[in-house]
C-alpha cells in the first residue's frame, strides 16, 4: 500500500511540474510576441522602450504597460494631422 501512495504522489508531482513548465513556456512566448511592438510604440510615444519588458511579469505586467500608455502623458505629445 505505501508503495502505491508514493508512486501516485511522484506521478502527480511530475505531471504538475510538466504543466507548470508548459505554462511558463507559453507565457514567455506570448510575452516575446508582445514586447517587440510595444517597444516600438513606447519609443514613438517618447517613453523608454524598456517599459515593454514589463510584459515578462506574469499576470499584471501587461496591464501596467497598457495603463502607462493609456493614462500617462506622452513626452512626444499627441499626434497631429500633419504628423500622420
Task: Based on the model shown, name its key terms.
transmembrane; 2 helices; mainly alpha; membrane
Strand-helix topology:
Elements: H1 2-45, H2 61-71
Distance from N terminus to C terminus (CA atoms, Å) equals 73 Å
The strand count comes to 0
State which percent range the strand residues make up. under 5%
Mean pLDDT: 85
Number of domains: 1
Q: Radius of gyration from the CA trace?
A: 21 Å
State the major sheet: none
Stretches where pLDDT is under 50 for at least 5 consecutive residues are none
Which term fits the overall shape?
rod-shaped
Residues in helix, %: 55-70%
Number of helices: 2
- The multimeric state of the shown protein is single chain
Structural class: mainly alpha
Q: Secondary-structure element sequence?
A: HH
Walk me through this protein's architecture.
The protein has 84 residues and is an all-alpha fold. Helices cover 65% and strands 0% of the residues. It is rod-shaped and about 70 Å long. The protein starts with a helix and ends in a 13-residue tail after the last helix. The model has no long low-confidence stretch (mean pLDDT 85).
Amino acid at each position: 500500500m505505501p508503495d502505491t501512495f508514493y508512486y501516485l504522489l511522484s506521478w502527480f508531482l511530475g505531471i504538475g511540474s510538466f504543466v507548470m513548465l508548459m505554462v511558463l513556456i507559453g507565457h514567455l512566448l506570448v510575452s516575446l510576441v508582445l514586447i517587440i511592438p510595444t517597444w516600438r510604440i513606447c519609443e514613438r510615444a517618447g517613453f523608454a522602450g524598456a517599459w515593454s519588458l514589463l510584459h515578462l511579469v506574469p499576470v499584471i505586467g501587461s496591464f501596467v504597460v497598457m495603463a502607462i500608455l493609456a493614462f500617462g502623458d506622452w513626452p512626444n505629445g499627441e499626434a497631429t494631422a500633419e504628423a500622420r
